[in-house]
Specification:
Elements (H helix, E strand, L loop, with lengths): L7 H13 L23 E6 L8 H15 L4 E6 L6 H7 L5 E5 H10 L8 H6 L9 H8 L9 E6 L2 E6 H6 L11 H11 L1 E3 L2 E3 L3 E2 L1 H6 L20 H14 L19 E5 L2 H8 L5 E5 L9 E2 L4 E6 L6 H11 L2 H9 L9 H5 L20 E2 L21 H5 L6 H23 L1
Parallel strand pairs: 1-2, 1-3, 8-9, 11-13
Antiparallel strand pairs: 3-12, 4-12, 5-9, 5-10, 6-7
Helix pairs in contact: 1-11
């Protein structure tokens, strides 16, 4: 998700934005639908981006999106606003300036901002009207969009993905005479490598493997839901969740391999780290002497060649837009092979499953040359959980707290940690329900 090297400073800035902006716009609002909405010009499409974070820089949005839309649709004006203080959802709603298209984090912000503010619109009829073929898009990404409601309403379409891969330091593998990891390896195989590579030599501690527990849980490869699909309660105290937790915690029980941060990889003392693919650029910029490459992230042996659930940004058309047909044509073009190739050249993973798109990945970025970037496409995304029943309460589940502080800080066993977060979340659901009454 980067600029061309021609603007290397902009690349570094864009990458640091997305890597550092792991949170989401704060303070969800519950504003009534704006009345007497000011009418924008008939030939203007208003695009509001909350994510990807690097679109905060207008020059990046213009280069990756704006200029291409202007060429394709010369008779329309593209108005772009990115989320910021004074330009949050609540501010747009209060001013009555509702966007035609919203691009945001599909997992974090659909419920909290788009649905809560009654901006959602089912795009199913537009997909039929314009004969848009969704079967060409990443199946897991499409399932995530459909699984918002039991009826499979499509409030948006996948726009960009930020997939996880396994980074490895070649010099550490060479130092200890261990073969490099390959695509298709299981957690069990990577665990054996981690044990061999975790060493303390004098003042140097070499960590064998690091993976962020919160991201591992949220985008888990076993397609587990932290919320019950049929009742207003959390559902974490299960065999599936215990298996998931135990799988990762064993890595951090290797002596000297305690969890610190996945972002220490560029310091040169970490053998393997799982992180998003855009770190290829950022970590290169942080340490140009770092001798590293990537492989597909490890998978479970009974769910082979399966990486994390989609870590995804989606494009939504708002209910209030008076230009839905035109807005859909804009989104459809952004998802066309022509545009997906352009995105791919800039290191952006798109939802279109096309060999030409995959082969174009990173072509405009010299920092990616020589890297095994096809590892990004070597495995498929895990499917997301099924839709929850209508009328159930949505709350964020702090699954990251299972590991920190409960396991790492308080030495809880897996079952106890999961049960504690389950109980905490269920209480939160009851509090939310009472507040909504």
């Amino acid at each position: 998700m980067k600029k061309m090297l021609k603007s290397s400073l902009v690349i570094a800035s864009a990458v640091s934005l997305i890597a550092g902006c792991t949170g989401s716009p704060a303070n969800p609002v519950d504003q009534p639908e704006a009345q007497n909405t000011p009418q924008s010009p008939a030939n203007e499409i208003f695009i509001y981006t909350s994510y990807p974070a690097f679109y905060a820089k207008e020059e990046i949005f213009e280069k990756q999106v704006g200029q291409h839309l202007k060429k394709k649709f010369p008779d329309i004006t593209i108005k772009h606003v990115h989320w910021d203080k004074g330009r949050e959802y609540k501010d747009l709603i209060a001013a009555g300036t509702i966007p035609d298209i919203i691009i945001d984090n599909a997992r974090m912000n659909l419920q909290r901002y788009i649905i809560k503010n009654d901006l959602q619109y089912d795009m199913t009829d537009l997909i039929k009207k314009f004969n848009f073929d969704t079967t060409k898009l990443n199946p897991a990404a499409m399932a995530q969009m459909k699984n918002v409601t039991p009826e499979g309403k499509l409030y948006g379409l996948p726009f960009q993905l930020s997939d996880f891969v396994l980074f490895y330091n070649k010099d550490i593998f060479d130092k200890f005479g261990v073969d490099y990891p390959k695509d298709g390896m299981t957690y069990d195989e990577i665990y054996e490598l981690a044990k061999k590579l975790t060493r303390v030599e004098g003042e140097n501690t070499y960590k064998g493997y690091q993976q962020h527990p919160g991201l591992y849980m949220n985008y888990n490869q076993l397609s587990l839901s932290p919320l019950s699909l049929t009742e207003d309660k959390a559902e974490l105290n299960t065999e599936g969740w215990k298996r998931l937790v135990d799988n990762l915690r064993r890595f951090y029980e290797i002596p000297a391999n305690q969890f610190t941060t996945v972002d220490d990889f560029p310091k040169g003392k970490m053998a393997m780290s799982v992180h998003v693919s855009e770190k290829i650029i950022q970590w290169y910029e942080q340490n140009k002497n770092l001798n590293f490459d990537i492989a597909a992230m490890p998978s479970f042996s009974d769910v082979p060649n399966t990486k994390a659930q989609p870590n995804m940004y989606a494009a939504y058309i708002t209910k209030q837009s008076t230009k839905k047909d035109l807005a859909f044509q804009v989104i459809a073009y952004l998802l066309s092979e022509e545009m997906q190739i352009e995105f791919a050249k800039e290191g952006i993973i798109g939802p279109l499953e096309s060999k030409k798109v995959q082969e174009a990945f990173g072509k405009n970025l010299p920092q990616m040359q020589g890297k095994h970037t096809q590892a990004i496409f070597a495995s498929k995304n895990a499917m997301p959980p099924a839709a929850r029943a209508n009328g159930l309460t949505y709350v964020d589940v702090p699954v990251h707290n299972v590991f920190s502080p409960l396991i790492f800080g308080e030495s809880k066993d897996s079952v106890t940690a999961l049960r504690m977060i389950e109980e905490q979340t269920t209480k939160g659901i009851q509090t939310e329900k009472a507040a909504n009454k």
